[in-house]
Amino acid sequence: MFTKSMENLHSSRNFRPGRVATLVEEEDSFATGIVFEVRGEENIRQAFGHLWEREINNGYEFVEIRVELAESGDVINAWTCIAGLDNEFYLGDADIEQMAGEIRRAKGCAGPNFEYVLKLAEHVRQLFPEDQDEHLFELEYRLRRLVASYV
Questions:
Q1: Which GO terms describe its biological process (predicted)?
Q2: Taking a C-beta distance cutoff of 8 angstroms, is the pair 84, 26 a contact?
Q3: What is the pTM of this model?
């Protein structure tokens, strides 16, 4: 769900805030993703330092979650970052056309917001071909139409 503003992520004169995909805690929900194992005290410290700067300073919070590993079915504890609904940058739900328009116009130091969404959809298809993220793929479809009409 694209409910978090990227407003605070970058500063630039040519900047227009957009939306980023956000994990939102919801009972009986799940997300498919990749779990990274970091070993060694210094590596762990560096990983958390990087995440702290990139995620926590942008309104996310660390949450320990239970993760079921796809290959083995084992359940482990892992850490992830979740944006709380009280986050100052939380935009909430919007009509898919409104989201597509906001994302099409948005741009930060990392580039156009629409590129982020299109690349995310591409990676989800490559990494998790069994997933049918209707929201993401509908947003991708509408963005491709908007971008094509813009060029």
A1: glutathione catabolic process
A2: no
A3: 0.79
Question: How confident is the model over 125-151, as pLDDT tens digits?
Answer: 999 999 889 999 999 999 999 998 765
Q: Which residue has the higher pLDDT, 54 or 63?
A: 63
Domain that holds residue 136: 2-150
Q: Which residue has the tokens 């995620």?
A: 55
> Is 37 annotated in the active site?
no
C-alpha dist (Å) from residue 143 to 24, 72, 88, 90, 100: 23, 37, 26, 21, 6
Given 41, 55, 64, 115, the catalytic residue: 55
